[in-house]
Amino acid sequence: MSADDEAGADRGRTSATAAVTLSEVAAKAGVSVSAVSKVLRGTTAIRVSPETRQRILTAAEELRYRPNFAARALQAARTQVLGLVVPDLTNALFTELMHGVEDAAAAHGYTVLLGRLDTDRPQTEVIARLLGEGRVDGLVLQATDGVDPAALAQLLDPRAAVVLINSVAPGRASSVTVDDVGGGRTATEHLIGLGHTRIALAGGLPTSYTAQRRRRGHQEAMRAAGLDPRADHETALGYTAEQGRQALRQLMALDPRPTGIVVANVNAAIGLLAEARALGIDVPRELSVATVLDSWTAENTWPPLTAVKMQFYAMGHTAVVSLVHRLGSGAMTDEVILDPAPELVVRESTAPPSS
Amino acid sequence: MSADDEAGADRGRTSATAAVTLSEVAAKAGVSVSAVSKVLRGTTAIRVSPETRQRILTAAEELRYRPNFAARALQAARTQVLGLVVPDLTNALFTELMHGVEDAAAAHGYTVLLGRLDTDRPQTEVIARLLGEGRVDGLVLQATDGVDPAALAQLLDPRAAVVLINSVAPGRASSVTVDDVGGGRTATEHLIGLGHTRIALAGGLPTSYTAQRRRRGHQEAMRAAGLDPRADHETALGYTAEQGRQALRQLMALDPRPTGIVVANVNAAIGLLAEARALGIDVPRELSVATVLDSWTAENTWPPLTAVKMQFYAMGHTAVVSLVHRLGSGAMTDEVILDPAPELVVRESTAPPSS
DNA sequence: CTGAAAGCGCTAACAG
DNA sequence: CTGTTAGCGCTTTCAG
After folding, report:
1. b/e code A198-236 from CB counts within 10 Å (16+ = b)
2. Which CDD domains does this entry report, sorted A to Z (chains A, B) (predicted)?
3. Which of A236, A227, A344 lies closest to A292 in space, CA to CA?
4. How large is the greatest C-alpha to C-alpha distance in chain B, in angstroms?
């Protein structure tokens, strides 16, 4: 705090850095505010004499002028801010996703506002606040898994610039999803390629959109190879480690046992692996395990997991591009990230069947 | 897009949800804007008759009125937005940190704007933009590791509401750090408690503030136990997996070998573990490894890592509380998260020395 | 108890 | 080429 600024010149200021306004620059340069405004934003060519222009530029420079965000936003009715709303910041997939969102946003001149879906508050509330109050120009939204997309769509004003990730709401919002079908297929094909024929699926909950599609990919691969996806070779217990353990116990009770398992989610795979060790089942000698990897949590398991890596960075990136496009043209699209394709990373949890 | 809205009624609107203004509510309720404003924000008691009040409330409700963020921000010179700026969104510790930031921000009526420190652009640029343009009221800032805090402090306007995490700039900005000293000490004490005496440290770069302090903790524990922290038992190579491998090779070349290693960072620990396996060194039979865990990346290594968990959630939470406090009172503080203390999680990478 | 009016900082017509 | 003016939507004195 400088000496005696209780006078009033500074009244009403926040404690933050002193705000230089356009008119102060104008005063210093001896011109009008609008002249300064024009020059500083480089509006419609140079309709200002070079000297004045220079005078303005130096004045702004010396005063360290910064345009006020709120004033601009009010005037333009745009904030150049995008909201990223997810149910759970702890989720590891989120990091990669957010990274993609951030990169794309920055590339298009946007910044990212974080939102979290509170379990206790209705999902609409966040959306209404962010979009309705004009805090953001658009929203990248991941609905909580298990929430019916159709129900969510009801809540969504179709005029709102929202792009859903990992779920769809046709005609209501744009969407971007990773190639879950391809992920399930690729993992399964890998086991088939190794010579496995009794291949099980440890799937997610039937209500989960991602789980449904990974399952579909699995079944497609099986049928394409002339194998029959038997119902008793499928569990649909969920994505937690404990549910993975449970899936293993259930599948290992079969006779004959499957020789390979495709796990639809990495946490479940970790649990499944741990349970296998607990039961004395040798992976990959007796049992091959391939997982659809929705995070990099598990790059250091033992044995290291063979996994199909989903493209979450690309999903975040694409979501923002789609959103920016929507903001510009109003176009609504539903996209699936097919390029890059889900990436098979072969590690040590898979091998040819023992005999 | 609806039929013919080129008319002009909607001109200048964004494509987003239609904005209901105060004056529209006022019109509907048959009162003035200021009346509506007062009632809607519950300003200074009820200086409005119950009937008008009710009329206003229902009008606002029916119109689904939402206060415009930009207008409020402009008027109040506050945005109720806090910036979280970090060098690397990919870093796993970041998730936990961000979670703490988000929770505390929400609890205090703030939302969080994400910022990233571009390697190519100067760090000041981000700060100037966020704070200088009034996009955020305050900043939680993690300087890039290796940047001299003193240099950063130079760039920092001391009037700016900034709280540094994982570094300090006394008198320039507030700061919050995790208890790195305690982390280093706890990991070392654990090995001492198991009976180890030849304990090495695989440390981070000497320029890193966290590395310095973890090292200090290590040495304190050694001296307290009457052990001598020998210089050749210390590496200071860095935090990457490859540098961890390198540290192991270097330390295992000693004669006699150390029987325990404290690793200052989890990525290095993972690399170190992998290298041990490659060299045929049995962990924990021949060598105990304890790490200071700055993320949960490695909960599934083999063998599972004994680790001292740092309190990043608390750091993020505290940083925001500190920031909010600073915004209110102008007070600058330097805090270390001592409660909760770094948490020792014993797994399978540590055991008593073999003989 | 209620309304009119000024102004936050900026932009975009519209005049000179 | 440059300046004046009228808002963007909201809050806040200050009159009525």
Report:
1. bbbbbbbbeebbbbbbbbebbbbbbeebebebeeebbbb
2. HTH_LacI, PBP1_LacI_sugar_binding-like
3. A344
4. 90
DSSP of B254-287, one letter per residue? SSSPPSEEEESSHHHHHHHHHHHHHTT--TTTT-
Phi, psi for residue A313 in degrees, rounded to 5: -60, -50
pLDDT tens digits for range B155-194: 777 788 999 999 898 888 999 999 999 999 999 999 999 9
Q: Which of A76, A57, A20 is nearest to A48 (CA)?
A: A57
Amino acid A175: pLDDT: 95
The rounded distance, in Å, linking the Cα atoms of B58 and B70 is: 24
Strand (E) positions, chain A? Answer: 81-86, 111-116, 138-141, 162-165, 174-178, 199-203, 234-236, 260-263, 288-293, 306-309, 334-337, 343-345
Question: Nearest CB to A16: which of B12, B111, B161?
Answer: B161
Query: Which pLDDT does position A18 carry in this prediction?
Result: 61
> How do strand B306-309 and strand B343-345 relate by DSSP bridges?
antiparallel
pLDDT exceeds cutoff 90 at A217: yes
The model carries a pTM of: 0.88
In this structure, which amino acid lies at residue B137? Answer: D
The answer for residues whose C-beta is within 8 angstroms of residue B57's C-beta and 6 or more apart is B39
Is residue B87 a contact partner of residue B123, using CB atoms and an 8 Å limit? Answer: no
pLDDT digits (tens, 9 = 90+) for A170-211: 888 999 999 999 999 999 999 999 999 999 999 999 988 899
- Cα A90 to Cα B96, B178, B314: the distances in Å are 7, 19, 14
Q: Which residue is nearest to nucleotide D3 (CA to C1')?
A: A32
Q: Which residues of B touch A10 (CB under 8 A)?
A: none
Asked if the Cβ–Cβ distance from B16 to A92 is below 8 Å, we say no
B9 touches strand D (CB under 7 A): no
Q: Quick one: closest CA in A to B89, which residue?
A: A99
How many whole angstroms separate alpha carbon A185 and alpha carbon A179? 10
Ordered domains of chain B (ranges, CATH):
3-74 (1.10.260.40), 79-178+312-337 (3.40.50.2300), 180-310 (3.40.50.2300)
Percentage of the residues of chain B whose pLDDT score is greater than 70: 89
pLDDT at A318: 98
Q: How far is A223 from chain B (nearest CA, A)?
A: 34
φ, ψ for residue B288 (rounded to 5)? Answer: -95, 140
> Mean pLDDT lowest for which of A151-160, B57-66, B113-122?
A151-160
Both tokens assigned to B127:
């700060």
Q: Is pLDDT above 60 for B2?
A: no
Which long-range contacts link B282-288 to residues 24+ away (Cβ below 8 Å)? B283/B349, B284/B348, B284/B349, B284/B350, B284/B351, B285/B351, B285/B354, B286/B259, B286/B354, B287/B257, B287/B258, B287/B259, B287/B260, B287/B261, B288/B191, B288/B194, B288/B196, B288/B259, B288/B260, B288/B261, B288/B349, B288/B350, B288/B351, B288/B353
- What Å distances lie between residue A200 and A237, A264, A353, B134, CA to CA? 13, 11, 13, 56
Using CB atoms within 10 A of its CB, is residue B228 exposed (0-12), middle (13-18) or buried (19+)? exposed
Q: Counting Cβ atoms within 10 Å, is residue B354 exposed (0-12), middle (13-18) or buried (19+)?
A: exposed
Which pLDDT tens digit goes with each residue over A147-166? 666 667 777 777 889 999 98
Residue A37 Cβ under 7 A from any strand C atom: yes
Does the C-beta of B64 come within 7 A of strand C? no
Q: Which among A273, A208, A262, A266 is positioned nearest to A234, based on CA atoms?
A: A262
What b/e sequence results for B29-59 when a residue is b if at least 16 CB atoms lie within 10 Å of its CB, and e otherwise?
A: bebeeebbebbbeeeeeeebeeeebebbbeb
Element (H, E) at B162: strand B162-165
